[in-house]
Design brief:
Elements: H1 26-41, E1 46-48, E2 58-61, E3 73-75, E4 82-84, E5 92-100, E6 106-113, E7 116-126, E8 128-134, E9 140-146, H2 147-160, H3 171-187
Antiparallel strand pairs: 1-2, 2-5, 3-4, 5-8, 6-7, 8-9
The structure holds nickel (II) ion.
Nickel (II) ion (NI) binds next to α2.
């Protein structure tokens, strides 16, 4: 396993349309394991292969929900008591994913992206969708997605078409975001 470099805007490779995977071999498994290590290290909840410079239709996602069955830690910062639970690992791999039956109903989430660091913005996307994908062995599956998972997989699928979440914003908001990023890099 190895942590790979994450491409950031305006790297032109992020606009490349990724190619379908045809070989379900050790190279694919190594790519996926590197992608997980890179994503957890960043940290992030989703990563497309093109974000580490590999133009293949491969996504990894781990929403890392709080493990509410585990022992939590009571915390009182911010003036009120609440409990922090450890995060649970739920790694998911999607090879050659396709979106079927996107809902007409939209859901809005504040999105961010490891390739657009420090920038967050609300994006509307279909609230639910069905996803057809292959696993690491090439087996085909179909799954209904909703909530954050539906948003996350649509965000990652966009990467396979060379689209970033900021491309869903108005030109004005996108330019403001890119300007902010440029400024932060100058001061970094
Ligand atoms: Ni992204």
């Amino acid at each position: 396993m190895a942590i790979r470099e994450i491409l950031e805007v305006p790297d032109p490779r992020l606009k490349v349309v990724s190619e379908p995977v045809t070989e379900f071999d050790d190279e694919l498994k190594e790519l996926v394991s590197d992608m997980f290590e890179t994503m957890y290290d960043a940290p992030g909840i989703g990563l497309a292969a093109i974000q580490v410079g590999v133009p293949k239709r491969v996504l990894v996602i781990d929403l890392q929900p709080e493990d509410t069955e585990a022992e939590g830690e009571v915390c009182s910062h911010g003036g009120h008591e609440h409990v922090h639970y450890p995060l649970k690992k739920e790694p998911r791999v999607f090879v050659n994913p396709e979106i079927l039956d996107p809902a007409e109903e939209l859901a809005t989430y504040q999105e961010g992206c490891l390739s657009v660091p420090e920038i967050f913005a609300d994006v509307d996307r279909p609230a639910t969708c069905r996803v057809r994908y292959q696993d690491l062995e090439g087996e085909t599956h179909e799954e209904e997605m909703e909530g954050l998972m539906a948003t996350c997989i649509q965000h990652e699928m966009d990467h396979l078409e060379g689209i970033l979440f900021i491309d869903h914003l108005s030109r004005l908001k996108r330019n403001m975001a890119l300007k902010k990023l440029k400024k932060m890099r100058e001061y970094a």
